[in-house]
Amino acid sequence: MNKSVLTYIQKASKKGEKLLAILLDPDKTSLEEISAISKRIENLKANFIFVGGSTVENGFTNLFVEKLKENTQIPIVIFPGDYSQVTNNADALLFLSLLSGRNPEYLIEQQIKAVPHLKNSSLEIIPTGYILIDGGTNSSVLKVSKTSPIPQENVQLAVDTAVAGMYKGKQLIYLEAGSGAKIPVNEQIISEVKKELNIPLIVGGGIRSKEQLKKAYNCGADLVVIGTAFEQNKF
Ligand code: 1GP
Predict the structure, then answer these.
(1) From CA 117, how far away is CA 35, in angstroms rounded?
(2) Mutate to test the pocket of ligand 1, among 96, 228, 232, 235 (most ligand atoms within 8 A of CB)
(3) Dihedral angle over CA of 108, 111, 112, 114, nearest 10
(4) Is 190 helix (H, G, I), strand (E, B) or coil?
(5) Which of 6, 34, 91, 156 is the least crowded, having the fewest Cβ atoms under 10 Å away?
(6) What is the pLDDT of residues 44-86, one digit of tens each?
(7) The domain 5-231 belongs to what CATH superfamily?
């Protein structure tokens, strides 16, 4: 699947087909588990495997993705906590800007640091606006990024932030309640954001049941990301 992750998502979004990504955090998964985990992901018919974590030991993502590639054909998308997680072994990279935050480190500094790792890489780079919504926990992304999330009740701010991201040229918008969130992104935010976007919408954080997954899709999520519930064998 060369250079086609974004096209695949765009086409599915236009057709109203719903996509699923399973998030694997190399920090929480051992290399020995990868074969069994890959089978579970294939059984779920997930469209993508996202790989990333807020704090992964330098260089380990590379090894982790290499091992995953030996076990599955499902496209692997790096969802990096920082630039050290960029690896050429994957298919694509979500080139994230944390638009809900006001910390330059995650708006532009990390992106600049990633450039030497990307220059000669064949990774598909996908400009993605990343928006944190309050998931009711002090998630690792909040701790690491030292930013405040958008409150669940501030629908307008979430919508305006997403639209600003689209105007800035982002190809995807990712609404994130944070891994392990108590409360997933609420339905009103998903549907109001979706109404204003003409680019695909990713939603993740705190989705633990088939019902919640369905709700997110029905409100307009094109791609849902599930991490914790997969780790806990709930999917
Ligand atoms: C986190 O959106 C993902 O970045 C997934 O969150 O672990 O809560 O499923 P969960």
Answers:
(1) 28
(2) 228
(3) 160
(4) helix
(5) 156
(6) 999 999 999 888 787 889 999 999 999 999 999 999 999 999 9
(7) FMN-linked oxidoreductases (3.20.20.390)
